[in-house]
Amino acid sequence: MEQGHIGGGQAALLIFTILATKVLLVYPTIMVQDGRGAGWMLVLLNAAWGAAAAWVLAALARRFPGRGLAEIAQEVAGPVLGTAFGLAVAGGLVFLAALVLRLLSEAFIISILPQTPPSVLIGTAVALAIYAGYLGLEPLARAHQVVIPPVVAAIVVVLLLVLREAQAGWLYPILGPGLPALAAASLRHAGAWIEVVLLGIYGHAFRRPGDLGRAGLWGVTGAALALAATTAAFTAVFGPEGAAREPFPLYHLARLVYLGRFFQRAESLFVLFWVAGSLAYTAVLLHGAAVTTAQALGVPFYRPLLLPLGLLLFSLALLPGSYTATQAWDALLRQWAALPLFGILVLLLAVGRPRRRGG
Length: 359
Known about the structure:
By secondary structure, this protein is mostly helical.
């Protein structure tokens, strides 16, 4: 396998970016629909499932240092089951990337460019993702270090500027529908954090295996805080009833920013958010799918797999007939994939022991 290495900070930023991309979509709205004024708290409870998965993946990395998730599965479950698991994970990543890219494209079209065919935006993003994946993991991680901090800073500025429109009373009662209802909702939406599996896929790429656990902790925590802050601001500005009906929370928050003649139409920042989010998400998941496929098949090079997987991603992204259908497919995939994936990870940790190599 072609090697590329990343540090703990780079991995944390990668995980943060992939998980926090949901801020551009309907995730805050779903949290408000189930949590009412406590939607922000539901985000934090929901993130606990992502943190638990990150802990399991970190434990696997310590037990099987220098190996990716597909390689670990093959060592524990044998070549047949391990290969099937690796290919299933790779296929799931491609399908998930396709659905999220379609959602991001539809959000951009509905909000900014209503006459643009989805295939144009999706095709451009996939082509750039293939190129980024070809460059390798290290350049991807370094690009995140350059691009993502300004995007995060811009989102923070938007949230701060809309606080004057907020009413703290919309966030009460603190526990919304009650703690049991919030806990049940967090379990239903546990699949929202399924991308944390990338930690295991890139387990072989960490310079120090111990960095994986810290990267997962910081990445999940940062994404949880960012999503919770956005959900809280969104709820405090529009109220639980209004927020539960808004399809693009961050875009509508940006439209409220107005500083006289000096700064207007902050929704133009949504273009920056969309471009950065869609390219980062698609590139990392496509690269992760190619790496996992190569590991599962025992292929020493992942780059030849990028083009066919990219074409598959492009085709899958165009399958749903509408934004609503894409959203339903995404929710269904996450709901039915999360529990089996987490269960298999726990099983690998429970029964897996590294085999001795050599004579």
